[in-house]
Amino acid sequence: MSVDAITRVKRDVVIANRILARNDVLDAYGHVAMRHPLDSQRYFLARSLSPAIVEEEDIVEFHLDGTPVDPNEKRPLYLERFIHGGVFEKRPEVKASLHSHAEDVLPFSISKTTKLRAVIHTIGDIGDGVPTWDIRDKFGDGTTMLVTNMAEGRDLAGCLDCNRMALMRGHGFVAVGRTINDLVRMAVYIPRNARVQMNAMRLGDYIPLSAGEIAARATLDPEAPAMKRGWEFWAKEAGVGHLLGD
Ligand SMILES: [Zn+2]
Fold it and tell me: What is 5-237's CATH number?
């Protein structure tokens, strides 16, 4: 029997947390959210908990401004949940959003000379010219560097603009998808792409994907069987295969 749409989304948020933790995209910190399937002004995100141990009962429903829908929700919440509200507010087509501190990506968030490029085919989705958001530009020199309110979340979403990913200077990145699989599949390869680029730079000149290749990758259906193959495998590998299905 099929589960209802809300249960499906909550389970998918759990699966996404576990896959991203298992693949070192998220560690003790970082989080992943999904827009509500029936109400575009709400989203689902875990309570403040490390992604590798998130369970279905940990998923909390939020208004876009970061307020829990249930006024009796008293559990600690992620300080940086405003990242997701900012993104979902600005990008109606985006259904899933994540925030990561993956170490392999960080050098590209602070380099004054070298940009993160798509260098492996699986990551063409990030496009050419990943923007970098610097909280200092608008919010000054004394922030904690965390995105702790909607003004900061909206500013970050403005930097992301129509891209799939934005770096956050000295902090991490935000990435988005049209579906949860679209996001998770791309995100698994973001640190791997960063490692390949860094290693290639040690060898000298390197060849990133061309504009034409990036455009062609963007035409792929994120829900096509070939693009979804990883979701099932990674879920089982992460110990949440029982949450797959209808
Ligand atoms: Zn963060």
Answer: 3.40.225.10
